[in-house]
Each structure stands twice: as structure tokens, then as C-alpha cells.
Amino acid sequence: MKPSLVILAAGMGSRYGGLKQIDGVGPGDETIIEYSIYDAIRAGFGKIVFVIRKDIEAAFRERFEPIRPEGIMFAYVFQEMDSYIGNQEPAERTKPWGTAHAVPGSP
Q1: Distance CA 99, CA 86 (A)
Q2: Average per-residue pLDDT in the chain?
Q3: Which helix (H) or strand (E) holds 1?
Q4: Is residue 103, in this structure, part of any structural domain at all?
């Protein structure tokens, strides 16, 4: 079984002012995430798991699905305000919990 790359990309981009996760930075408008995916596939990874917010799923799919190499699985795990660990009740918060709590439920 090939390993999975988990990309923690649920950030709100409040200081940046937008979805920095999908903005191009490379000479061909590549994102930093695309460089990570490329390196992971060359290293033998077979699945890419994006930990994102539900409200940015469409933008992620639009950006990354067209470049998904054949034989590589993409999965989307959502970090939301109502996500929490185990039996703990969520505290009153204005921002989501840390990203790591979304990973145990990944497909």
C-alpha cells in the first residue's frame, strides 16, 4: 500500500486576503501545493488528502482535479467549526479548531 500525503489547507487566508492555497506562484501558474503533489508522487505516494473547509471545496476541485495524474487518488476532508475530537463538546469559538482534528475521519 502506498502512503498518503496529507495537505493541511483549511486556512482562512484572512491576512492574505484570499485563497492563497490555490493562487499560482510558479512560471506556469503552479501552486505551492502542486509542487508538493509532484514531489510526493515521485517519492511513491498514491493518495493526496486535502484537509480543507467545505466552503472552498469547489475551488479546490476546480484547481486540482484537472491536474490529477492517472492512478492517483484525491480525497477531501473537511475542517469545520462543528468538528471536534472524540467525546469533547466544541467550545465557543470564532475560528475552527486546529487542523489535526480533521485527519482521523479521512476517507
Answers
A1: 15
A2: 83
A3: none
A4: no
Above 80 in pLDDT, residue 99? Answer: no
Does a structural domain hold residue 104? Answer: no
Q: Give the model confidence (pLDDT) of 60-79 as tens digits.
A: 999 999 999 999 999 998 87
Enclosing domain of residue 19: 4-98
**Tally of domains in the chain:** 1
CATH of the domain at 31: 3.90.550.10
d(CA 80, CA 96): 6
28 strand-pairing partners? none
Compute the average pLDDT of residues 11-40.
90
Integer Cα distance of 71 and 80 in angstroms: 29
Residue keyed to cell 485563497: 19
In a domain? residue 106: no
Beta strands in 1-107 (DSSP E): 4-8, 47-52, 73-78
- Residue 105 in any domain: the answer is no
Tally the residues of the chain.
107
Residue of higher predicted confidence among 22 and 93? 22
